[in-house]
Amino acid sequence: MDNEEMVQLVTKEILRQLQQNPVITQGQSLPSQHKALIIFTGGTIGFEQGLAEIKKLQGLCFAVTAVLSASAEQILGIERVTEALGSHIDIVTAHSPYPGKILREADIVIIPVLTQNTAAKVAHTLSDTMVSTLILQGLMMGKPVVAACNAADPLDSWRAQYTMGNSSPGLIKALQGNLQKLADFGMELVPVDSIAKVSQKRLCQKEQMAVNHTAEPAVGKPAHKKAVLDAAAIQTAAQNGTKSITVPKGTILTPLARDVARECGVELVQG
Questions:
Q1: What is the CATH number that goes with domain 31-204?
Q2: Of 179, 183, 35, 184, which is closest to residue 119 (Cα–Cα)?
Q3: Phi-psi map region of 246: left, alpha, beta (phi>0 left; psi -120 to 50 alpha)
């Protein structure tokens, strides 16, 4: 087995372990990896589970800015959001200036509860609210947009619990058609309990694509795919008590991985 194959296997195993245990060891201080724009609508189906998923991402060094629609501010309340995610996070409400700069700087847009109303607006490209505008512009910027679709799915089991599972075939078709349009626009629709896992995966893919683009050989030279050692691998190694990691020659070490290694006291030895 060559060095490239070894690093790929190690990275795959580390990512698997991260998915099983995505919380940082208590007392560790790590730099923020990614900026996440979290958009809260006024929906309650899956809201508490959505908060727990965002909390997991914070444990993985995601810096969070929360946007609350007018109905979210009224129904859910700013206090509940800050209680779960911390009073230090930035909050944007319907009365705030439009957060265009925050959207541009965000690495990912996450919607913990996608309501049927918001799904219908975005599916028909209506940008008459701050929330629908942010989602549409995020998609147009090519940013990863991940949304929990439980509240918008007419056949979701939670709908039946709330006695809303008896829709006519025509209504079911229309509501599911809205979700299909969103998927066609590039939105990733997931169950609420998959938000953290899918968001992390999307950004790992984005980082990998950027690294691969950087590592592309010059025209006329043979292509040699290079292995990558990223921040997730360093983070998990530190959690397991590793103090030194040998980096095989030719392996790409991301800048964030160097920062995490320095913060965790892990020595990187060039092999």
A1: 3.40.50.1950
A2: 179
A3: beta
CA-nearest of 127, 132, 67, 138 to 96 is 67
pLDDT in tens, the chain (271 residues): 555 565 555 555 555 554 544 444 433 444 457 899 999 999 999 999 999 999 999 988 899 999 999 999 999 999 999 999 999 999 999 999 999 999 999 999 999 999 999 999 999 999 999 999 999 999 999 999 999 999 999 989 887 776 777 889 999 999 999 999 999 999 999 999 999 999 988 887 776 666 666 555 555 555 555 677 777 777 777 777 788 888 887 788 777 778 778 878 888 888 6
Residue 212 phi/psi, 5-degree rounding, is: -60, -40
**Domains of the chain by residue range:** 3-17+215-266, 31-204
3-state secondary structure of 9: helix
> 242: part of which helix (H) or strand (E)?
none
Contacts of residue 7, defined as CB under 8 A and 6 or more positions apart, other chains included, come to 227, 228, 229, 248, 251
CA angle 1–211–12, rounded 5-degree value: 40
Q: What is the pTM of this model?
A: 0.69
